[in-house]
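Hi there,

I know you've been waiting on this one. I reran it after we fixed the sequence typo, so this is the corrected version. Both the input and the resulting structure follow.
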Amino acid sequence: MCGRYSLTHSSEEIAARFNVEITFEVSPRYNVAPTDQMPVIRSGGQQGAEAREAAVLRWGLVPFWADDESIGYRMINARSETVGEKPAFRAAFRRRRCLVVVDAFYEWVEDNDKKWPIRITVGDEPLGAFAGIWERWSGDDRVIESYTILTTDAHDVVAPLHDRMPVWAPQDHWDAWLFGDEAPQQVLESMIEHFPADSVGYGPVSPKLNRPGNEGEELMDPERVEGLPERSPGEPLAAR
């Protein structure tokens, strides 16, 4: 699964990377947690034109048919194997796909009866995206736009940390995911197949990240903890 990630780049950097106009400010976030409002890239909906749009949505998808918004707390991830079939996700999967803008995500390992966060980076660029879907919910005189992150079986380089991982969206798949005529399940499977394993790197960061409310660059201070995994891109996993 993916329950925490980071996005520490500016609006200008995101605009340049995704070739999109951004009219809002993005503050560095080192500890993004469910229900946070974060940037995604989606179709601009201009009568079929392939125009990208940046928007700020809430993490944790609320289906359009839900009685209330609380269901979103349980919808932070969607399994890629069943996303096209589940009632909560299938309509969004067909018509409302997005790119979740990220620069890293986190998993945890246990060492000496403590949980230690591991920061995982993917790709040759410092700024990338997960495959996501989004939805619009109306209720109580409010409108909530929310998203979920698609996950898949962990690749060998991530598996020592967790058995699931987010679906990484390579740049050459972005438009196919957002606008493509090809069946979305085929695009999804292609993204999973082309996961850039050689460019994955990870290592431990501050245990202060365990608390969702903690924020700031100091969370990236490395913790040298014996027995925890470290991996530089292109290198094998260090012994645990």
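Quick highlight: The radius of gyration is 17 Å.

Best,
R. S.
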